[in-house]
Amino acid sequence: MPLGPEHAVALWNVYSDPLVARYVGGDSLTPDTTREQTERWARTWTDHGYGQSAVILRSTGAFLGRIGLSIWPDWNETELGYALLRSSQGQGLAQEGCRAWIDWAATNLPDDHLIAVINPLNTPSLRLAARLGFTPSRHETVNDIEVTVHRLNLPR
């Protein structure tokens, strides 16, 4: 399900946990910036036909977070990213959702690769990126934070 402004409050609930937010925006995340994010991702869906997806637990309808693709216009690259409730982490949901997006991207995107922008202190995301086949590519500074950009060449 495309993530949009209707999910802003639920996504803020995910981000309001400092242990979740610390690697996906930290103190820059507020209810207002979360709404702006969801509006930007909704435009990406409209303009490009893909974006971030709401992760909804089928059995209860509970919102668990987001997984999907985002465009980095400054780099002209597409990122695979996610954020899940802490209670939903470690269950394979991020891996399953990321693999589905990789498969979709390999078939549908003209890009020859995806990136994952990861804070080098985020050990769980570093491990997941490696399991998915991403390799460290370069270092960048995003919002005054040094991050590692990992690259996955898409199978063709």
If you had to describe this structure to a student in words, what would you say it looks like?
With 156 residues, the protein is an alpha+beta fold. The protein is built from 5 helices and 6 strands. The strands form 2 sheets. The chain has a 3-stranded antiparallel sheet with strand order 1-2-3, with helices on both faces. Strands 4-6-5 form a 3-stranded antiparallel sheet. β1 and β2 form a beta hairpin. α1 crosses α3 (31-48). The radius of gyration is 15 Å and the shape is globular. The two termini are 26 Å apart. The relative contact order is 0.14. The model has no long low-confidence stretch (mean pLDDT 93).
Q: Can you describe this structure in just a few lines?
A:
The protein is 36% helix and 29% strand. It is α+β, with helices and mostly antiparallel strands.
What is the radius of gyration? Answer: 15 Å
Helicity level = 25-40%
Structural class: alpha+beta
Distance between the termini: 26 Å
Biggest β-sheet description: 3 strands, antiparallel
Average pLDDT figure: 93
Helix and strand string, N-terminal first? HHHEEEHEHEE
Shape verdict = globular
Strand content: 25-35%
Cross-sheet strand order for the largest sheet = 1-2-3
* Beta-strand segment tally: 6
The number of helical elements comes to 5
Low-confidence stretches: none
